[in-house]
Every structure is written in C-alpha cells, then in structure tokens.
Amino acid sequence: xxxxxxxxxxxxxxxxxLLLYSFGGPxxxxxxxxxxxxxxxxKSVPAERLVxxxxxxxxxxxxxxxxxxxxxxxxxxxxxLAHRGLDLPIAWGNRNWEPFTARALADLRAQGxxxxxxxxxxxxxxxxxxxxxxxxxxxSLAELVDxxxxxxxxxxxxxxxxxxxxxxxxxxxxxxxxxxxxxxxxGSHAPLVFVTHSIPDAMxxxxxxxxxxxxxxxxxxxxxxxxxxxxxxxxxxxxxxxxCSRSGPPHQPWLAPDVSDALGELARAGTRSVVLAPIGFxxxxxxxxxxxxxxxxxxxxxxxxxxxxxxxxSTRRVFVSGxxxxxxxxxxxxxxxxxxxxxxxxxxxxxDVCRAGCCLARGGVASDVPAACGEDSDPTTWSVR
Length: 385
Description:
This protein is an alpha/beta fold.
C-alpha cells in the first residue's frame, strides 16, 4: 500500500487526506436485504416493507446507483485537486455498507494519515444528514486500535454543510436551466418543483434546535436557485418544495407534500408541464432513480403532465470546485488564518464544528450516542491528537 506524501501541501495543512463519507448501498442482489436490515436496525420496520424497498434496487440489478456516483465524485475531486497542485489522497467510506467508514479510515492511517477532513455527501443538516454520520464516525474511530488495543493517532474533522455554498447553488441552477431547455416551448409556463428527502416532523423540529431547520435550509437554497434560473431564462419561475421517500408508519407525521401529491395539485390547477429538481440530493441515487425517475414521472404521465427531471450536482465542475474551495477554507481556519467563508442566501455559513445539541435525534430526544466533530463531543472517545 503506497504511503502518503511526507508533508501535505501548505494550502491543505494540517490535513493530509480526505474522506468522502457517504450513506452506502448494495452492490448486488444478494446484498440488498442485508443492506436494508443494516440501515433499519433498531427500528420497527416490517420485513415486508424491506422486501418492497428491495424490489426498487432489483430494478437496477441489485446495485445502488450511489456507488458509481461516489467513485465518479472521488475521481472528479482528484482531478480538481491535481489541477490546483494539491497532492491530497482521498478515501471513500460508508455508514451502511462496504466500504465501511472504519475500513476507509484504517486504510488511510496505515498509509500514514494523521489528520483527515471528511466530506459528507449530505449537503443539509438534520439528524439523519449530520449527527448520525457523526455518531458513526465516533464509533469508527473508536475501533481504530493498534495491536495492543491502544487508540491510534488519527483525527477526523467534518467539512461544514455546503447547501448554501455558491458552487452547490450554481450547479443546481445550471441543471434546472438545462431542464427548461429540454422542455422547449412546453416550458414557457412550467413551474419548478424542488424535491428532497422527507423526514419526520419531530426530526425537522430537532434540526432547528440551534440552527435553521432542515426545511428552512432547503427553502433558502430553492429561492436562490429559482431566482438565478428566472434571470437566465428571462421569465418569472413559480416554484415550491416537495418531498419524497417517506418511510415511517402512516400515523407518524412527516414533511409534506409528497411530490406526487404536489404534481396532482398542479394538474388540477391547469398546469401542463413541470420541471422536477432534486435539490436535496447530490447524486442520482435510489431516491432519485426510483422515487423520481420511476414513480414521480409515471404520476406526471398519468396526470397528463409533461415533466422533465433536472440533473443533480453530481460531478459538475462548479460543484466539485466548490468542495475543494471549502476544503482549503477549513484548512486555513485550522491554521488560524482569517478567511472569508463563502455562503449565499440569508442563513450564512454553517459552523465548522457542530454546536452543542445540534440535530439531536429522530424524535427530538438526544440519542445518548457519542458523536464526533461537535462542541459537545468528547475527543478522548473518538480521536487522539
């Protein structure tokens, strides 16, 4: 296994490696149900529901589209880093499936890494999009011990949320403009429906305990993207935020409206064409490939709507470049350099270190699970400086 460079590039110090830190997904049909059981462990999810969701993956050969997207993003980050003269290795690790986070971190440490910056593939803040990753990171770091059982010397920081970074906003706007071009004349009056993953109302409330909530974050970005698109296509764009992929019991309130319900309302109001923009996702994984490309577009056809789904930010250069900008911003701040923190919209740049009590848990009750990278974290339980 090749060793890391003896010294990091001065612009990247103190970091000597990056971790692309994602949700994970199955690679083959035999992985699907074990993966879903891993994701839902500790939750009261009926076995028949897992089989139902597993069928979505089987439409794609049992392989999650997320895996290829993550590998493509790793490659794109490498290209952008090289373009800037940065020699900074990147590993890929997942919360819920191979390659697991602990394995990725162990590989980096074996190569000589001491300080790693993790880029989570969730742009927004909530329990499932932030704290759950920090809890998994604390567990993964606790597993890194030497042959004598002593913790190894590895520190991992988490890159701040980037939902309102100009690179993310611009990449989404570019994708929406392309979708309107695809509609052609049919898009002259088409509204824009932004779509993100639904979460329980209780998780939404917890996400807003010390920072603007998950829904508020999306609304701020959606307004920015819609304004940019309107300027570029030369007309006003009506827009709304809708949700997909709810998975809780029927009696548990989740964020609404569902995207299919939103499409129904538009059709009843006389709308004939629409653009769907998956602003809550950075790549075309299952919630996009199935919930939008299969279910939502089928709903649109049944309603007589002409619908186009905009692309995700994926490996668009402006997005990838923005991520590298964020890496260098965080590195500078860790060196004590006072640098501008780029953020669009009204909410400002997210903290580098999550505030005490941030995101809590699904039901608004603290999970009591140690979490890394927070003001209320205990570094001795998950890292050795």
